[in-house]
Amino acid sequence: MIEVKTSTLSDGEFNRGVFATHDIKKGQLIHEAPVIPYPNEQHVHIEKTLLEDYAFEYGINHTAILLGYGMLFNHSYTPNATYDINFTNHTFDFYAYTDIKAGDEILINYNGDVDDNEPLWFNMDKELEKG
């Protein structure tokens, strides 16, 4: 149902994104990404690595690194997918927020809520660079 391909939206070193290989209906489960959770006080070590950009809040006292395709979904303020944290299964469950056509890149809002337009860390960094 999904595959990793080159994305024009990602300006990072790897330029990857997750794309639909088939039409996906609104509300349909797209992917269950397993997580590696760790206590927030350990995040200072992750901040020194490339993994910092791939860490998600995982409850009040933990952060998590997503595995599977979970780490590769790109950001949009107008996403076509959303996710729920499934603490019982230790997964982030990604769902279609809208109908998604085969070939479309699957995008989530990194702020967690589809309507949250708060600037993200990488947008703030770009603004600082502009001066």
Automatic annotation (TrEMBL):
SMART domains recorded: SET (SM00317)
Residue ranges annotated for the SET domain, each copy included: 1-111
CDD domains in the cross-refs: SET_SpSet7-like
Domain of life: Bacteria
PROSITE patterns in the cross-refs: SET
UniProt protein name: SET domain-containing protein
Species name: Metabacillus rhizolycopersici
